[in-house]
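User: I'm preparing a small set of examples for a lab meeting where we compare how different chains pack in three dimensions. I only have the primary sequence for this one, and I'd like the structure in token form so I can line it up with the others. Please keep the answer compact; I'll paste it straight into my notes.
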Amino acid sequence: MVVAQFSGGGRGGGWKEMRGFGLQVIIGRWFMVFASLLIVAVAGATYMFSLYSSDIKKSLGYDQTTLNLLSFFKDLGGNVGVTSALINEVTPPWVVLSIGAIMNFFGYFMMWLAVTGRIAKPPVWQMCLYICIGANSESFAHTGALVTCVKNFPESRGSVLGLLNGYVGLSGAIMTQIYHAFYGDNSKALILLIAWLPAVVSFIFLRTVRSIKIVRQANELKVFYHLLYISLGLAGFLMALIIVQNRLSFTRIEYFGSASVVTLLLFMPLGIVIREEFNLMKIKRKSLEDLPQLNVATENPPSVELATAPEAPPPQTEKHVSCMENVFKPPDRGEDYTILQALFSIDMLILFVATTCGVGGTLTAIDNLGQIGASLGYPSRATTTFVSLVSLWSYLGRAVTGFASEVLLTKYKIPRPLLLTIVLLLSCVGHILIAFAVPNALYFASVIIGFCFGAQWPLMFAIISEIFGLKYYSTLYNFGAVASPVGSYILNVMVTGKLYDREARKQLEASGSPREAGEDLSCTGVQCYRMAFIITTAATFFGCIVSLILVFRTRKFYKGDIYKKFREEAKAAEIGMTSAENGSDKRSPAEEVEHRATTATVAATTTNGK
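Assistant: Understood. Below is the structure token output for the 610-residue chain.
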């Protein structure tokens, strides 16, 4: 259809128009969304730790506490994105993405060299540094891609966060299929794939992701729903693939075939991008055809007496106020807070504590899934199933809460903090299933934990943008993510790791065999994780109670129109565009035609969207 549209203008003209349309697609904001989807779809290495953690443990002779310490530094790097946020405040997104790509390759490549024995066994602190650097690249990818998309689509932020975070959740399952296609069952090679693939994708789309200032397209929410449907199809295919692969043994060729279908589904949003840009091009072309002819006068224009503008009042000198004086005097909710005002606000403290308990608990379960399955006697290939289930349901949690919370908020005024409270309560069920080790319950626990882990992120990020504004969103977005490593360190390293090692030492002493130097410490049985996840359940329930406090504090704010500010800004931009027509005598004829076509395109797009 697109090619046929360009074939009517002669051979040379048709190809020229096609090249022009191709350029329009590449520089358009919908192609930027597509590029961001691909970047985050391969930037979820932190969620695949349980797939290669056993290789690290055996190759380097770690006990569970040391392995969980490594896991903590992975979470620390993956979620402490203050550096990327500050860089993003003063540089364009391509700088952030390029730094992240370099860090990703260096960190994971050094880990691969250590695990495969190609370099001497590094000290624990070096391995912690490598995984922290590699995982920190994920925050650069998210800051460069996700934060930029939210700023480009402020009125659809819930949908944007749900969609992009959904692809982050799917990244584990996507990377698993690609890894099997490239390297078969060599789990050490997975670390190498994690090193080079995200870096390559980020470099390809380096200059595509950027801030685009444009009048809101009225049908943009419908476009995001179409992108959601494609992602649901991808998730459904991956779910079916996991079920089949859990029952049958795939050959290398079959893995290559499944990975090819996954890649095709990843690129399907490109069709929607081309369709939207094609529709915009047709509207603009029609607007140009419908414009009246301009009469250009070139001789003796009549003199026009210019009205004297009223004299502007002298500027008033504003009293300089120190930023520290306003720290405890924040604006109303929904206005732009400064960074310090947001960090020292009670709302941020409540949200941080609730997220620390919630995300910390679910992340503890995800990072230990492989060890939990081994201690309970699940087959080794079940670990891949657990990771894929967590990845898929994490996607559903992110996508469903992102889109559903937007609908519930705009239509029924149901606040996002209330939905966060419900998600925290649901995650307690998953922790209890792990604690009491009901037969085959780990599959159901993986589903619940994955959904709840994914659901918390778009809710938290949307709450931060709604309460504290978008001016310093990249910094506040990354500060909110710090709750993840804090909760992970407390519940994963200090609680789960130490309780696991204590039980493992008991079993080793009971067997009467001494532990040799460099030998990993393993535990088997229900008791290995029971107490740890009872404590995790209690901590998550405490976070649920804390979240309820935020619900009561913000109930009046969420009953109002929180997007009114952005609609007024868009309306002001349209009024400014219309009023600028009064100064058309200062434009050249070509500039006047282009201006009128742009104005007509915006109006037509708005009408079609309605």
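A couple of notes for your slides: The CA atoms of residues 153 and 160 lie 7 Å apart. The chain is about 75% helix and 0% strand.

User: Perfect, thanks.
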